[in-house]
Design a protein that fits this description.
This protein is mainly α and 176 residues long. The chain has helices at 2-12, 20-28, 35-61, 65-88, 102-108, 113-142, 146-173. This is DUF4142 domain-containing protein.
């Protein structure tokens, strides 16, 4: 648990300062999130939940060491992202729990071995991270809640790195 806490701090570090006016505005509207902020909370929690659940599937259904290592990394990092999101969500804003994309899970559950690996890399690794990058970028640029915006800005490089990792894994495994 201490390792997770240390990695959590290393991943998110100290939140960058934002102008006091933005912080004051977000504090008075803590229970009234903008549509952009609401969409971000939903997208970020769904992305992380899906990553965690599919990583668990990969541990059971993949036989490939590289895929299993990637999945483990996704499970660790997305667990941290979920914790961070819950910590910065304004009072009264529920961060959905266990809200994985059922279509992704249903598509992966029956697959094993190389068929699983190919679908996992493409659907979760690449497609999922492309969607996550877009959601985190949108929040970083357009978010109204200062804490959510800071968290998205801080986490964005990690999500972008996950996408790079997925693309490298796809190239290594011949997944198009």
């Amino acid at each position: 648990m201490a390792v997770r806490a240390t990695m959590f701090v290393a991943l998110f570090g100290v939140l960058t300062p934002v102008c006091a006016q933005t912080q004051a505005a977000s504090t008075t509207q803590a229970n009234d999130l903008s549509p952009v902020d609401k969409a971000f909370v939903q997208a970020a929690s769904e992305s992380s939940s899906t990553e965690i659940d599919t990583a668990k599937l990969a541990a059971k259904q993949s036989q490939d060491k590289d895929v299993k290592e990637f999945a483990h990394r996704m499970m660790v990092d997305h667990t941290k992202l979920t914790v961070q999101l819950k910590m910065v969500a304004p009072h009264g804003v529920a961060v959905p729990k266990d809200n994985s994309d059922p279509a992704v899970l249903d598509a992966l559950k029956p697959l094993k071995g190389k068929a699983f690996d190919t679908a996992y890399i493409k659907t979760v690794g690449i497609d999922g991270h492309q969607k996550a990058v877009a959601a985190f970028q949108k929040e970083a640029q357009e978010g109204q809640n200062a804490e959510l915006k800071k968290a998205a800005t801080k986490a964005l490089p990690t999500i972008q790195h996950h996408l790079e990792m997925a693309r490298a894994l796809a190239a290594k495994k011949g997944v198009e």
